[in-house]
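Bumping my old thread because nobody answered last time. Still need a sequence for this structure:
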């Protein structure tokens, strides 16, 4: 492909050069003919020749001898010229401004020699004219003016012109091939790179190309942008495929246990329906119902976890006063019958802290942390919920630089308990799916609460920290 493009470009260059050469040659011959006929360029020689031919208008006869009138004498002085009149025998009959060493008698051969060649001196060109039956030499002393006499054979001239044109044509074609090859290679190499880049895109290989300077710079830059976008779309597609496969795998894995329980008790009820007591039927249906509800909660939690983790869940942000929001959550918790007599404390050092949050999701995350502290500890555990202002690290720098700007702060939510704590070997697994710890017998929930809570905090661009000491308690810190 590369050489094909080069050959095409080279052929175009050679064709253009040949056509241009032929046209230029024709134009050159036409100009030479016009110049010889009409002196279209108005050269100095043509002006001098014309001056010598029309000078007869300044010549008059006096006593049968030619003289130059005053206007003609002024013209001679302006042209730095002289004039010599001759009779039919070649003898001088009158002269004006002629040099001292100029001969006064000429044979026919000498007349021809004087006209054709610079016989007077190297700076003077002699022209011939006629006035009142007298011939005259008109010499113009000017180094810029010259005459060149040529003799030629038409047949040979055309022969040599043909040979010269052929040589020029061959040389032009050779030069065109060399230049066309060099420029063609330079111009077609980026095209070949572009073609290879398009083939890579077709094969789903998204590789950036180096951007050359020149006419192709924008093309290469757009190709690289296209490659980046296609690469992003490909990664997104692969990511969605992976999400789907992970979702199917998680659902398949997590549904096996409750489905097995439901299937087992359903089979037992079918096979022993006449032998079961009302209490046994009630117990079995309760187990089936509990497992079906667990499956529903598990599906909801799995779906929420996957969407949060992959940033596929749109959050409904609104301005919320965090202090009042968590105070209401604490009251709601204490009004719940299972936790009405539990020790839950709420503290704050401020009245208002407004943040843009998704109330539903943030409420679920904080409730998950509080429920874990209550459910996985003894009934006498004390849970403390505290809200504080925390200034950023750059506050001291602002104070030292005397900048009069309002200091920014973060809202810190701390949920601490004095319960069993978490063993150090389990700390890294707290936010993993289905973690329940080794020092608790509770099986409440789906095992996804902490993982969901962490993803919710991260979705709010918050920070989450957990510290725990065994037999002393656990502290969860949320920074918004």
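Sorry it took so long. Here it is:
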């Amino acid at each position: 492909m590369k050489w094909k493009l080069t050959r095409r470009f080279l052929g175009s260059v050679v064709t253009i050069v040949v056509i241009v050469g032929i046209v230029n040659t024709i134009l050159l011959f036409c100009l030479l003919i016009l110049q010889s006929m009409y002196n279209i360029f108005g050269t100095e020689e043509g002006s001098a020749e014309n001056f010598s031919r029309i000078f007869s208008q300044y010549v008059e006869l006096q006593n049968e001898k030619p003289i130059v009138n005053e206007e003609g004498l002024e013209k001679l002085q302006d042209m730095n010229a002289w004039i010599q009149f001759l009779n039919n025998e070649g003898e001088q009959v009158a002269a004006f401004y002629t040099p001292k060493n100029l001969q006064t008698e000429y044979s026919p051969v000498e007349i021809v020699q004087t006209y054709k060649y610079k016989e007077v001196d190297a700076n003077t060109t002699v022209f011939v004219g006629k006035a009142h039956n007298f011939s005259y030499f008109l010499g113009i002393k000017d180094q810029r003016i010259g005459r060149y006499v040529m003799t030629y054979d038409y047949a040979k001239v055309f022969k040599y012109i043909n040979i010269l044109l052929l040589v020029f044509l061959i040389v032009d074609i050779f030069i065109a091939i060399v230049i066309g090859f060099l420029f063609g290679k330079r111009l077609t190499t980026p095209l070949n790179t572009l073609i290879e880049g398009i083939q890579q895109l077709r094969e789903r290989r998204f590789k950036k190309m180096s951007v050359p300077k020149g006419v192709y710079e924008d093309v290469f830059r757009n190709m690289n942008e296209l490659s980046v976008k296609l690469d992003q779309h490909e990664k997104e597609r692969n990511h969605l495929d992976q999400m789907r496969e992970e979702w199917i795998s998680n659902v398949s894995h997590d549904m096996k246990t409750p489905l097995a329980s439901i299937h087992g008790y359903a089979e037992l009820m079918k096979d022993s329906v006449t032998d079961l007591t009302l209490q046994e039927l009630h117990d079995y249906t309760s187990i089936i119902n509990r497992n079906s509800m667990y499956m529903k909660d598990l599906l909801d939690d799995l779906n929420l976890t996957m969407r949060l983790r992959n940033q596929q869940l749109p959050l409904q942000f609104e301005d919320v006063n965090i202090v009042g929001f968590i105070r209401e959550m604490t009251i709601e918790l204490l009004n719940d019958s299972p936790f009405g007599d539990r020790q839950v404390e709420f503290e704050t050092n401020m009245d208002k802290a407004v943040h843009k949050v998704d109330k539903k999701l943030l409420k679920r995350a904080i409730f998950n942390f509080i429920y874990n502290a209550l459910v996985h500890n003894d009934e006498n555990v004390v849970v403390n919920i505290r809200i504080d202002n925390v200034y950023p690290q750059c506050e001291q720098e602002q104070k030292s630089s005397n900048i009069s700007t309002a200091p920014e702060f973060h809202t810190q939510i701390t949920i601490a308990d004095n319960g069993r704590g978490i063993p150090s070997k389990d700390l890294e697994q707290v936010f993993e799916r289905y973690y329940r710890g080794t020092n608790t017998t509770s099986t409440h929930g789906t095992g996804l609460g902490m993982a969901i809570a962490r993803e919710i905090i991260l979705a709010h661009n918050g920070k989450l920290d957990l510290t725990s000491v065994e037999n002393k308690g656990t502290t969860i810190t949320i920074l918004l």
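The chain has four domains: 2-26+152-201, 42-141, 218-309, 318-479. Let me know if any region looks off to you.
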